[in-house]
Amino acid sequence: MPAVDADVPVLIVGGGPVGLTARALLERWGVPTLLVEKHADLSPFPRARLVNVRSMEILRQLGLAAEVTAHAFAAEYGRIRFRDTLHGPDFASAAMVGIHAPVPESPVTGVVTSQDRLEPTLLAAADAPTRFGAELVDLAEETDHVVARLVDHRRGEETRVRARYVLAADGANSTVRERLGIGTTGPGALAGVTTVVFDADLDDWRAERPAGVYFTPHGSFLPLYPEGGWAWIAPTPEDVEHADWPGLVSRALGPRPDARTAVRVDVSRVQHWVMNASVAERLRHGRILLAGDAAHAVPIIGGLGMNAGIADAHNLCWKLAGVLHGWAGPGLLDSYEPERLPVAHRTLRQAVANTQLMLQVQNKRRDQVQAGETTPEEGIELPWSERYFAQLGLVLGVAYRSDAVLCDGDGDGRDDGDGDGTSPEPPDSGTDYVPTTEPGHRLPHLWLTPDRSTLDSSGEWFTLLTAAPDHWERQTDGTAPWPLRVEPLPHEHTDLFGLRPQGALLVRPDGHIAARWPDFPSSDSPLRAALTALTRPTAP
Fold first, then answer.
1. Which pTM value belongs to this model?
2. Would you state the pLDDT for residue 443?
């Protein structure tokens, strides 16, 4: 048996956006990591296409939002269009909420960008070691650590890594999840899909009416990069070995409107994959935690999957840091599953609903064409009323219910759960986002200064937001060893946040509200009591 050749606090399995985000977040916390990825390099395929406003808020916290935006499409590409052919007129169209234009509820705007443009930025955001071409083939959990067995495909060597914790972000066909025997719920495999990356002279087709996705009956067309490149996504044909990919794409495109000849297509890459729809039955097995597609495989319609995975990492990494740095007990990690598993189920339901809405539009158009009732220029009424699948309530309105959330004014209690630190799944956020300072919700965005948001007060620390900072500063003497900063809240914001002049919000490092005191509490040492209840540090 090979000897252990590395010993790290956290082993990250998977080098996609979720694993790379976790690596960057943990480095900010001063937690050493090792990331292993079975493929030899970052993915050359576009894959995920949309970075929503919540993910951009997380990237802003990492100092990456401006760079990601610089490599992305302009805001007018934040739209979907339905056409009979790519070069035809729209018969339906909808803006992507929070992408096509700013929303007042966030300091950032999401972007349309390809995953192969996002990943290099995330990789460069941290210096922690990585091993590409190293595949995890087995792992064994012991009392105080996990030992992972890796095969280095470049060198043909087998090695072992010992880690205090393992963060598994190794995709929908997760080896880690399979080795742990964790099952999944949901429809499972929905369809075989092929992505063809190609070049063609199509710039004039998108110039007047840009979009991030063009849906047609012959497959979906996606512009890949601002400087050019396209992808065609369609059901996988039966005989892939002998498929004429340039011919298939060219026929799906159809002839130019001003010519009878087909468009010349130069294919550079072809990828076959399975669209899955499932959620893991559990997100934690002792010292091993699932995130991203390993935890929830989400259909691509609506761009929710990668963004949910980034939020998984954001939720989990501060908890791992607290346990490893000693200001939180291992029980803090118990809050990960009850907080993120309900979100995974709601995300999957939303993605299925998105797919159904898309099919409604295409089926209605097909019926109209067959009946000869309308022309594309007349259009059809969209079932989501010009809002891209109406999901801002899910993106920004997630509410956590766990032992890491306290009731209003509660210094040593829990949320309104059922006595074991959990509560029934919060109700669906619905289509609209309504800002609230109720504990468990994301801190609402308000401008503290012309260029600094309330969300910018969060970081590698707990934040106490209050209009009476001097009054509360006296309470911080007993809050060691927790990282804590007191952030002055402008008096004009207190009413909006449901606070009296001496009230306060305690905000977790992931930007979710941990506790709220509408007024200064009468109890002794309220901050210490709240932080103790939240993090459950191990007694010395």
1. 0.92
2. 97
